[in-house]
Amino acid sequence: MQIIYNPTFRKHFNNIWDYIAKDSSYSANKFRQQLQLKIESIPIFPYKFRKSFYYDNENIRDYIFKGYTIPYFIDTDNNQIIILDIFKWIDK
């Protein structure tokens, strides 16, 4: 499955990276590398993670990484994983 990054994810990730980099660019780069490896492993078992708390769709899952939620959509029709967003938490 191909991994697609939604523009919202990219924008929010860049904000998080900038925030971490204020203290340490090494830590920010390490965070990015570790997250990228985890995201790249999602297609192996795309339904492994919990159904999203934030969307009412069985094909949207929440991956939790270092306290951040990364919702992603499993698009079986197009053989894609779409990484939707990244955030600390949202109070429903």
Characteristic key phrases:
YaeB-like fold; globular; single chain; 24% strand; alpha+beta; 92 residues
> Uncertain regions: pLDDT < 50 for 5+ in a row?
none
Amino-to-carboxy terminus distance = 31 Å
From the alpha-carbon coordinates, what is the Rg to the nearest angstrom? 13 Å
Q: Estimate the strand proportion.
A: 15-25%
Largest pleated sheet: 4 strands, mixed
Shape: globular
By DSSP (H or I, 4+ residues per run), the number of helices equals 2
Question: Topology of this protein?
Answer:
Layout: E1 2-5, H1 7-23, H2 25-41, E2 60-65, E3 68-75, E4 80-83
Helix pairs in contact: 1-2
Structure, explained:
By secondary structure, the chain is an alpha+beta fold. It has a single domain (2-83), classed as YaeB-like fold, CATH 3.30.2310. It contains two helices and four strands. The chain has helices at residues 7-23, 25-41; strands at residues 2-5, 60-65, 68-75, 80-83. It has a four-stranded mixed β-sheet. Strand 3 and strand 4 form a beta hairpin. Helix 1 (7-23) runs antiparallel to helix 2 (25-41). The termini are far apart. The model has no long low-confidence stretch (mean pLDDT 94).
